[in-house]
Design a protein that fits this description.
The structure holds 2 protein chains of 2 kinds. Chain A is an all-alpha fold. Chain A contains 10 helices and no strands. The longest helix of chain A has 22 residues. Chain B has one domain. The longest helix of chain B is centred in the C-terminal third of the chain and has 24 residues. The chains are: A mainly alpha, B mainly alpha.
Chain lengths: ~180, ~170
């Protein structure tokens, strides 16, 4: 079988729940996907200020925050730092034979790195397009939203898993058949 | 100060996701193939603990909640698109950041794809923003619909999630 995580789902889930409570008490619930918009807005404001300021959607995020870095953006930076540190300490940093290829992917699709990269890129674009239309992602909409018992977040959670499960089954047809 | 707080909370969030395996491609795909339930159980556990804590905080007026509006049609379409991306990338918008920090280059490409996805959304936004206005019920929660204290929903809901995570969902390794 493939490599297992350091923490069990029980411990990690408990810690996640506690962190969500602390974050809600101190600032607000956890969320990530807005910061992709903030990043785009910051970069575009530097590269092409006219385009950035004339865009109705980017404007919503840029101007309010002076096109700058706030709490949420630092949170995502923190995720990168914290995730990197814990991977390093537990010796999980750069563990793959080929950094672009998950073992499970290779078992199904072979060792073509460009093919994996195409999927990774297209998947990322779909993820954030969907997240922005919904107003949040797995953390902000599903986990934080359902924890706050938001009706739309239940709908979002069901919808992403329904579509994710169907898509995963189509991708891994061979594995499922064997 | 809030910037440092963001960094610290983010570091804890990233470490929990990394240690819990949420940044591992095969753990996410295992969940979507309904073979390996760990990530689903991790999420259920997080929500089960979080919901009671948040509504307990709310009781003493200490919860800085952020309720997202419920626009049924738009959210369903968004979720269907997101779900395809979830399975195709094998990461979500947060876990690809964590996986990037682990040196996984495909996850870095997912982050890039995400930044492009937002640009595409920003371009088509004027044409599709109507999806946010149609069937929009505003910031509704289960307690607000029944007009009762949130804890009365959060406690039994949390119990159901614990039951699902500990008793109902089982791994199905081939």
């Amino acid at each position: 079988m493939y490599e297992e995580p350091v923490l069990s789902w029980k411990v990690a889930g408990l810690l996640l729940g506690l962190l969500l409570i602390v974050a809600t008490a101190l600032v607000k619930p956890l969320g990530v996907s807005t910061e992709y918009v903030v990043t785009d807005a910051i970069v575009l404001h530097k590269a092409a200020p006219n385009v950035a300021e004339s865009n109705e959607y980017l404007n919503k995020y840029g101007e309010q925050q002076d096109w700058g870095i706030g709490y949420g953006w630092m949170l995502v930076l923190g995720m990168f730092v914290g995730g990197g540190l814990s991977a390093f300490i537990t010796k999980r940093f750069r563990q793959r034979d080929k950094p672009s290829l998950p073992t499970m992917w290779r078992d199904e699709f072979g060792s073509s790195s460009p093919r994996r990269m195409m999927h990774a890129f297209a998947g990322g674009a779909l993820l954030l397009f969907g997240a922005r239309l919904a107003g949040g992602c797995t953390s902000g909409h599903m986990i934080s939203g359902i924890a706050q018992l938001t009706i739309g977040s239940f709908i979002f959670g069901i919808s992403i898993f329904a579509s994710g499960i169907v898509t995963a089954r189509m991708l891994y047809k061979r594995r499922l058949a064997s | 100060m809030t910037l440092i707080l963001g960094l610290v909370i983010g570091m804890a969030f990233g470490a929990i996701l990394q240690l819990g395996g949420a940044s591992m491609y095969h753990k996410i795909m295992g969940s979507l193939l309904l073979k390996d339930m760990d990530i689903i159980k991790l999420i259920l556990m997080g929500i089960a603990v979080g919901t009671v804590g948040i509504y307990a905080l709310d009781l003493v007026d200490m919860a800085n909640m952020s309720i997202k509006p419920t626009y049924v049609v738009g959210i369903i379409i968004a979720g269907l698109i997101f779900g395809v991306g979830f399975a195709v990338a094998g990461y979500c918008p947060g876990t690809c950041v964590v996986a990037s920090a682990e040196g996984k280059t495909d996850a870095m490409v997912t982050v890039l794809g995400g930044l492009v996805g937002v640009l595409i959304y920003a371009i088509v936004y004027p044409a599709i923003s109507g999806l946010i206005d149609v069937t929009n019920y505003g910031e509704v929660t289960v307690p607000s619909v029944f007009d009762i204290n949130g804890l009365w929903i959060a406690i039994p809901f949390s119990a159901i999630l614990f039951l699902l995570a500990f008793k109902v969902l089982k791994d199905r390794y081939e």
